[in-house]
Amino acid sequence: MASADDLVSRIRLCFGLSRDDFDAEVQPLLQRYASYVHLLPATADNYFSSPAGLLNLGLEVAFYSLQGTDAHIFSGRSTISARRQLEPRWRLATFIGGMCCELHRVLSHLIVTDEAGGEWPPFLAPLGDWLASRSASRYFVRWRPNATESRGLGVFALPLVVPGATLQYLAQDNSVIVPHLLSSISGQPVFRDHNVLDALVRRSLALVIDRNLQANADRYGVPQFGSHFERYLVDAMRRLASGSPSWFPNREKSRAWLGPDGLFLLWPQAAHDVQALLEADQLAGIPKAPETMLDLLLEAGVFVRQPDGASTWFVLPPELKTAAEAVKLASPAILLHGVAPPAEPLAISLACPPGATRTTQKPPPTAPAPAPAPPPGTQFSLLDATQVATSPAARTSPSPPVSQTPAPPPAVVADQAVPSPPPPPSPPPAAAPTFKLNAPMRLNPAVREALAAIVNTLNGPGSAAAAAPIAAGLFVPLVELEVRGVQPALAGRALADVRLLVHARRDGPATVTADFRGEPTIGLVVAPACIDGFDLASFEPAAHEEP
């Protein structure tokens, strides 16, 4: 710990505690973490590969994660008094999450032995305690070959670093802090809830690793440079697969296509979506080129090559006429595990040679019998033709030819009244206005697609509408965004960035409560100017909209 005195001093200042309180509450956590990881390196020959690399990595990520909590509000839906009680617990939990974010490496990537050949049991005791019990003056590290990253193992080492009393303190008066902490350490998402703690830890970890690689000149030119972004790339693809409609397999204009020969992603279109999502997360050092992402994911075994060694494949989905370039995942479960509803594979194979085209051979349509021309001056509408063509009488009882109808005798015709011509058909009803989203292109793609689907429900029956116009704009309930895989906080920020959120104020909440289907509902109000089909004159001007 002596080598990290400067960083520990910065951590104490960031906590804002007195020296006595810091020594009583935080210093024991630092000592236990240092005793567990000792002088172990974080990687064999990549970032933080020097002695005490894992110790420095954990402390730096913990510091930047703690520093990031100053710009975020936890438990935003709670009262002010409740937030005042929970805020210190959230900050401590975020610090612990950053410190223990790479703890799984001790359990999965290396083996420690002493001079006598005894092997350290990392599930049972910290490394410092085990060395003291064996009076060892040195130890040796052997890296496991082809070790896979298993972040969930970090949960089993957590009790050796964080005492149970600390976890009990974090769980007091709430039921979310500890689950969010364990979710961040294990790498498992918290469904239907935005994990601010994990977002801060991931962003800080990317920043710390990127700075370490740039500061160490020995790492430049090494093929493993940037390989730590594998987890972020896979996580971004999983988030898109579960939350973006354009990533659900086998849909129109989808990025993903699932067939009997595997799961394919159109490339580089999928890479651009991943890059946009990671840039929104503000992660440092994210690869900018699709080729770099492809090389990293091929090296990690997420994508597979063709038998001839080519990096990309060519696929021919049903909606395309020519083959498109794509990448193939090693297993569809990498993206589709846990995605509901499950995707059904196509019946046809997708892989094809480069330049292949789809030849569509359809039987020529049978030409319908020409309808008799109406007499001159007769009004005829498309609605009448549809009613005649679809009526049962027209299908079952065709009219006899005109030539077969016997003409009446001339005397009878003279005595009969001349029938009046039939009344002209009534004009078809006016079509209802069509509502369509017309938002700026810089709007977040996931928010755009979800909002477009919600606006489209206005064109159907009123009972199926997922939004309702109010005096200020279109009211969109938060639950309608969530069922379409978009977090309300993300939607609010994205709409506010393009000035489409009517109630976005710096001194007030972005959400409003309105009557929706007879019940008070929390939602967002979207500016009516971005929706085609609305009469803007019927809406009140948003005088209180954020400038």
UniProtKB/TrEMBL annotation:
It comes from the Bacteria. Residues 362-377, 398-411, 419-431 have a biased composition (Pro residues). Residues 388-397 have a biased composition (Low complexity). Pfam families: TraI_2 (PF07514). InterPro entries: Unchr_helicase_relaxase_TraI. Residues 5-310 form the Uncharacterised domain. Residues 350-435 are annotated as: Disordered. NCBIfam families: MobH (NF041494). This is Conjugative transfer protein TraI, relaxase. It comes from Piscinibacter sakaiensis (Ideonella sakaiensis). The lineage of its organism: Bacteria, Pseudomonadati, Pseudomonadota, Betaproteobacteria, Burkholderiales.
